[in-house]
Design goal:
With 273 residues, this protein is an all-alpha fold. Helix content is 60%, strand content 0%. The two termini are 52 Å apart.
Length: 273
């Protein structure tokens, strides 16, 4: 299938065609009636299929002013087919699945730990599963496409996102995530330089703040994400929550810890951002 951008060209209203002697029919009519009314401007015409796509994607069937996204014809036809239930729907879905499958394969190839730790067979399973999930996600998100990029580019991002999520889950599937114990501060022989002593003092203060300022749930999130470096989507799955909730929790954790460190004199006002 030819995927070259075929941009919809909307005709721009121009002056009426000139009649004999260089005068337009409107001018002739106006002169005879003595009227000075300007010719009525016409709205550019849009074909039925493209109009339906414009309504579906932009919420309007009227071409917008210069600067608004112009959706290529190929993208409009693809979106129409994905929304419809005609014979072209299955072809459009296969095209969608092929696109996100390429994106998923691209992402997994960039994650060498997947291949070295899980093997080629499991890596291919991750790619296939991510492509299936991404296809479903795109079909449920068509209303969010605003035409600010090519539809294929927008779709490609879904494949990358879902492949990364599937790969991280697979890598952590058999790894425990400790949500109960607070790790003890590392001990050992250190030199007595001022910088080392200061760093050790700050670490102890942060550890105390985690114990005294944060809630039990916030402590679990902080240790898992900051100390153990558990991927946020993996932690969300283990805790029965979602990424947005964990991002909010992490933000609250940082605010509390910074406030406590400021009160203890480890962070000064000039460092506030």
């Amino acid at each position: 299938m030819d995927l070259a951008p075929d941009v919809v060209t909307l005709p721009t209203p121009g002056p009426a065609s000139a009649g004999p002697g260089g005068a337009s029919p409107h001018d002739a009519g106006s002169a005879s009636r003595g009227s000075r009314r300007s010719p009525r401007r016409r709205t550019p015409s849009v074909s039925g299929g493209v109009r339906a796509s414009m309504v579906a994607v932009t919420g309007s069937d009227t071409p917008t002013a210069t600067g608004a996204p112009t959706i290529p014809t190929d993208d409009c036809d693809w979106i129409d087919a994905l929304r419809g239930d005609g014979p072209g729907h299955h072809t459009a879905v296969r095209r969608l699945h092929d696109t996100v499958h390429r994106a998923a394969a691209h992402q997994v190839r960039r994650m060498p730990h997947v291949w070295s730790q899980l093997g080629a067979v499991r890596a291919q399973e991750i790619i296939d599963a991510a492509a299936d999930e991404a296809t479903t996600a795109v079909l449920g998100s068509l209303d969010r496409f605003e035409g600010r990029s090519r539809f294929s580019t927008w779709v490609f991002k879904f494949g990358i996102l879902h492949a990364g999520t599937e790969a991280r889950r697979a890598l952590w599937r058999d790894r425990p995530v400790d949500l109960t114990e607070h790790p003890e501060p590392a001990t050992g022989d250190h030199d007595g330089s001022a910088s080392v002593v200061e760093a050790r003092d700050l670490a102890a203060a942060v550890s105390t703040a985690i114990d005294t300022v944060l809630t039990a749930r916030q402590r679990r999130v902080a240790i898992a994400l900051i100390v153990d470096e558990v991927p946020i989507d993996v932690l969300a799955e283990r805790m029965g929550t979602n990424r947005n909730a964990l991002y909010k929790a992490l933000h609250d954790i940082r605010v509390k810890l910074r406030s406590e460190m400021r009160e203890q004199g480890y962070i000064h006002d000039e460092h506030r951002r």
